[in-house]
Specification:
Elements lengths: L3 H5 L4 E4 L3 E6 L2 E10 L2 E6 L2 E8 L5 E6 L2 E8 L5 E6 L4 E7 L5 E6 L4 E8 L5 E6 L6 H23 L4 E4 L3
Parallel strand pairs: 12-13
Antiparallel strand pairs: 1-2, 2-3, 3-4, 4-5, 5-6, 6-7, 7-8, 8-9, 9-10, 10-11, 11-12
Length: 172
């Protein structure tokens, strides 16, 4: 496989089918999420199987685990508009959703530097765009954030894109 950051810089695209969601770039598969149930999916990365799942209602969390070991956790603040992501190595990122005028999900460094975002574009036909604005972070962490974003934003993506997901890479 080509270097991951090169693939991510070449307009990757999410494609949805009934039980799987695939991230591809230039017709090369990067990762495939296999649906187990509405709030849980599996994927393979570096020949290891991972599980991504949601838990909780009042204090919702999203976990990515490998063999029962927590790789990252997204902890949302009350109402889910902000949150914190912590990786097993202690590295932290921020998560924020704005819903005005159109929904936007953003991932940031601890210093509030934007890394990537998913947003709803309301021009003509609504569509979802992912923009990767910082390719300098660890490539595995970047890919896990992209997967986390898709898992968190998938209902909006599927509803508005009708299986066509447009990706724009805005910077390196």
């Amino acid at each position: 496989m080509k270097k991951l950051k090169l693939l991510l810089s070449q307009s990757p695209t999410w494609k949805f089918s009934k039980n799987k969601t695939t991230l591809t770039s230039n017709d090369e598969m990067i990762v495939e999420l296999k649906k187990i149930k509405h709030s849980k999916a599996t994927f393979e990365l570096d020949d290891k199987e991972y599980v991504i799942k949601n838990e909780g209602f009042w204090n919702p969390k999203t976990f990515i685990e490998n063999n029962g070991k927590q790789i990252l956790v997204l902890k949302r603040h009350f109402l889910g508009m902000k949150g914190e992501i912590e990786f097993e190595n202690g590295k932290k990122y921020l998560y924020k959703i704005k819903n005005s005028p159109l929904i936007k999900l953003t991932f940031l460094t601890e210093n509030n530097k934007e890394i990537l975002y998913y947003k709803l574009d309301g021009n003509l036909k609504p569509k979802t765009i992912i923009s990767i604005t910082d390719l300098t972070i660890n490539e595995k962490e970047l890919l896990l954030l992209i997967i986390l974003g898709c898992h968190s934003f998938k209902g909006i993506i599927k509803e508005n894109d009708d299986a066509d997901f447009i990706t724009i890479v805005a910077g390196a």
